[in-house]
Inverse folding.
């Protein structure tokens, strides 16, 4: 990243701003640099919410406590689904790198479906919790829990939309490595969302019961 | 070396001219100018607010403004000056000069850059629209809970929350853009430690924003949810903790202070060597001090909260950290003095402003260190002493630095010099007016005059100094008017500047004024710090500069490595950035009126933003025409 580019590749490869050639995507990782910076910023977003959750983790008020409502086996299963989607994402990226568009398409679809499965599990869980009396109004614990988990859920949703878009693009062969929406960047984002879930699952669920 | 190699540059398709051209531009220089002009307009608006505040406070028991109007005006004054004036003027300089100083043809993501600008402008208009929709935010720029979570039926605080949220997105996006630019777009030979100090400070600021804005964003989310969805984050009666807001706000708010001042320090570090005709004294020290300020800046936020009862351990820790951060700042001051020391100083307007920057910033810095002494801080908390302190660093510091930058780089932007005579007059008026306004506030604060209070009674001993401050404020306003007149007049009929009017040291002075769209006909090859200077001068035994007889032209055309460029591809204009930000601002209006069916507006806005986002992700960067 910090090695000075030589005149040759500056002039042939990245003299024109945010364009760079798909075949040399490791030479000047302009987009990837920005993506990493953005993910660094995301760490603070999640960090601030996790800190809030820590502050309120026992402020149950009149609402149910964590131990009363959490269903660890269920959430473990949906966490497993989400982690497996990271595997399928890697496979999709790998297939794309080997120019196997058909396989990449299959793995992209699998990743999107696993993400959607996790999301439906989260919706199911939220409905259950509300029935048991945990709402955003019931206690600061409830407010912090719903904010953190639904903020993460929104990230998964955005990821699923991006994956679905790439799947649709791949049907007409319009999947390029040199566009803003490319498989490597979506992959980075997706893995980040998965890793954050490991932290959230540990802190919000496992440490609370 | 022969004369310049005629590079076969094909003019790329740069889109329509006129208003549509400005709306769709992705040229970093045009975007920089847009930022600059917008900041100047907001500076005038924020200044008028300040004048109204000062009129109300000119004497005891005046009734120029109602308490309600006063609250709105001081809130909007702070909000405007921080987010709509100083940050965008810094963004203006960064946009214009970061790529050029690094020898690049544009920023890493030109369309993202345009998006940041339009979102900033949209957010500014959004916040100001509240004046016509029932009243502007009135909870101070810090918007402490639970004051700001009460009165949910009045939407003015929502305008503040949503406006800041949108500005945060704009800042994060542009920071990621600048970081990618500094890391990946440098010209050959431009190693990190050959980057001009201004580029370094822009990089540090980008990192500060990337890691600090999320904290306040989450706090703002929580506040918005408390107001609109009935969550309990800041509801003390239900077990929530209003202090959480103060922490989240100041984890952002203190690094933000350095966001405002570091680019000005960078500008001054560019100007002092040029006008002293000496290299910057201790370049690595200045760079690493800037980085150190960035790091330590994340560990001092609670000195804004010494009266909140955090306990002696936390207070001692933050007090010590606050003293520590004065060290790298002091290092910079001595480096600047060392730069000027023994130089052949030219006291022109940019230099005058830079020297005043150092002096005023030292005063503000010293009154700042007094806040590290907790008993004294407890006494001064929320008094005019604090107002005096931060105006010395943000006006006497930051604004003086940026005005210095305008005098220094105006020739590069327009090809014309700003009038030096008017500039000197304007400088002295500004300096006297500034000290007359904010100097007395130290005394007022030490005598117990509280901030954010719309009037004061007779016989408290505050009358005289308040009248002085108001007089000074009008002197500043007069000086700003002269400044604007100078800009307008010199742009039309100023003395032509040429490429290098100040005998500069950095790459922007190697190209024409104003620069061509693609900046450099040939990408420069950089061999040392202050490369351009060393191409013009060598040194005699006493270290004095000696003109090199034959100045090479064409920085890249260098024996053996001659480069031919077939075609310089510049990114094409795009209307997607402005569309995307319009969608987000539209969604913002919906969020402010959720109770009144705002969801429909939110949905429409998000759909527009997604249309823009996908359109932009899928369009090729450079279109053929």
């Amino acid at each position: 990243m910090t090695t000075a580019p030589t005149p040759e590749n500056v002039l042939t490869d990245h003299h024109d701003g945010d364009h760079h050639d798909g075949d040399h995507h490791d030479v000047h990782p302009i987009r990837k640099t920005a993506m990493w910076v953005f993910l660094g910023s995301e760490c603070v977003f999640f960090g601030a919410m996790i800190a809030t959750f820590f502050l309120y983790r026992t402020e149950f008020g009149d609402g149910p406590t964590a131990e009363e409502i959490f269903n660890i086996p269920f959430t473990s299963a949906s966490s497993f689904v989400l982690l497996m989607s990271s595997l399928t994402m890697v496979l999709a990226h790998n297939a794309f790198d080997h120019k196997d568009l058909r396989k990449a398409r299959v793995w992209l679809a699998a990743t999107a479906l696993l993400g959607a499965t996790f999301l439906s599990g989260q919706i199911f869980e939220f409905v259950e919790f509300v029935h048991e009396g945990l709402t955003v109004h019931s206690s600061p614990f409830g407010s912090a829990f719903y904010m953190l988990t639904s903020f993460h859920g929104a990230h998964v949703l955005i990821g699923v939309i991006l994956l679905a878009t790439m799947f649709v693009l791949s049907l007409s062969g319009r999947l390029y490595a040199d566009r803003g929406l490319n498989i490597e960047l979506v992959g980075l984002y997706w893995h980040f969302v998965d890793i954050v879930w490991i932290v959230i699952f540990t802190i919000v669920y496992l440490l609370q019961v | 070396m022969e004369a310049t190699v005629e590079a076969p540059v094909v003019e790329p398709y740069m889109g329509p001219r006129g208003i549509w051209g400005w709306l769709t531009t992705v040229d970093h220089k045009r975007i920089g100018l847009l930022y600059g002009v917008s900041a100047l307009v907001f500076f005038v608006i924020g200044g008028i607010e300040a004048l109204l505040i000062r009129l109300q406070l000119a004497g005891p028991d005046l009734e120029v403004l109602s308490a309600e109007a006063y609250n709105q005006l001081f809130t909007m004054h702070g909000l405007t000056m921080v987010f709509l004036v100083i940050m965008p003027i810094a963004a203006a300089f960064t946009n214009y000069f970061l790529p050029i100083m690094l020898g690049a043809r544009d920023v890493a993501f030109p369309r993202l850059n345009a998006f940041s600008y339009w979102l900033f402008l949209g957010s500014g208009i959004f916040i100001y629209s509240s004046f016509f929709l029932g009243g502007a935010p009135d909870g101070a720029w810090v918007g402490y809970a639970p004051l700001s979570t009460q009165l949910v039926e009045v939407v003015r605080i929502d305008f503040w929350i949503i406006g800041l949220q949108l500005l945060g997105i704009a800042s994060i996006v542009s920071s990621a853009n600048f970081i990618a630019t500094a890391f990946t777009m440098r010209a050959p030979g431009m190693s990190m430690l050959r980057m001009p100090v201004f580029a370094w400070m822009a990089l540090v600021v980008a990192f500060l924003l990337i890691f600090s804005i999320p904290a306040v964003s989450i706090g703002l989310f929580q506040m918005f949810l408390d107001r609109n969805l009935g969550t309990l984050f800041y509801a003390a009666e239900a077990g929530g903790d209003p202090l959480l807001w103060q922490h989240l706000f100041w984890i952002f708010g203190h690094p933000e202070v350095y966001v405002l001042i570091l680019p000005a320090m960078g500008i001054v570090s560019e100007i002092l060597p040029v006008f002293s005709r000496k290299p910057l004294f201790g370049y690595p020290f200045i760079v690493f001090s800037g980085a150190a300020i960035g790091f330590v800046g994340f560990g001092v936020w609670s000195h804004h909260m010494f009266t909140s009862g955090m306990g002696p351990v936390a207070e001692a820790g933050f007090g010590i950290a606050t003293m520590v951060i004065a060290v790298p700042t002091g290092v910079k001051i001595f480096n600047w003095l060392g730069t000027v020391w023994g130089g052949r100083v030219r006291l022109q307007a940019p230099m005058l402003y830079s020297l005043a920057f150092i002096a005023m910033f030292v005063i503000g810095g010293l009154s700042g260190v007094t806040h590290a002494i907790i008993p004294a801080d407890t006494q001064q908390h929320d008094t005019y002493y604090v107002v005096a302190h931060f105006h010395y660093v943000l006006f006497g510091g930051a604004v003086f630095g940026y005005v210095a930058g305008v005098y220094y780089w105006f020739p590069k932007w327009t090809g014309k010099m700003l009038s030096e005579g008017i500039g000197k007059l304007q400088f002295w008026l500004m300096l006297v007016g500034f000290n007359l306004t904010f100097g007395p506030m130290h005394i007022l604060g030490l005598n117990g005059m509280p901030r954010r209070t719309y009037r004061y009674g007779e016989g408290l001993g505050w009358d005289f100094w308040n009248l002085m401050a108001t007089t000074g404020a009008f002197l500043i306003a007069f000086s700003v008017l002269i400044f604007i007149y100078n800009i307008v007049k010199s742009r039309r009929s100023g003395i032509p500047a040429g490429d290098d009017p100040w005998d500069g040291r950095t790459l922007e002075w190697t190209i024409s004024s104003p620069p061509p769209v693609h900046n450099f006909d040939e990408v420069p090859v950089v061999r040392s710090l202050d490369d351009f200077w060393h191409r013009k001068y060598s040194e005699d035994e006493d270290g004095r500069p000696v003109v090199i007889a034959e100045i090479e032209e064409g920085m890249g055309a260098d024996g053996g490595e001659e480069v031919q460029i077939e075609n310089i591809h510049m990114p094409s204009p795009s209307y997607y950035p402005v569309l995307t930000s319009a969608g987000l601002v539209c969604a913002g209006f919906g969020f402010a009126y959720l109770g009144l069916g705002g969801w429909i507006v939110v949905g429409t806005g998000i759909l527009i933003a997604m249309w823009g986002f996908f359109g932009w992700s899928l369009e090729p960067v450079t279109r053929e025409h």
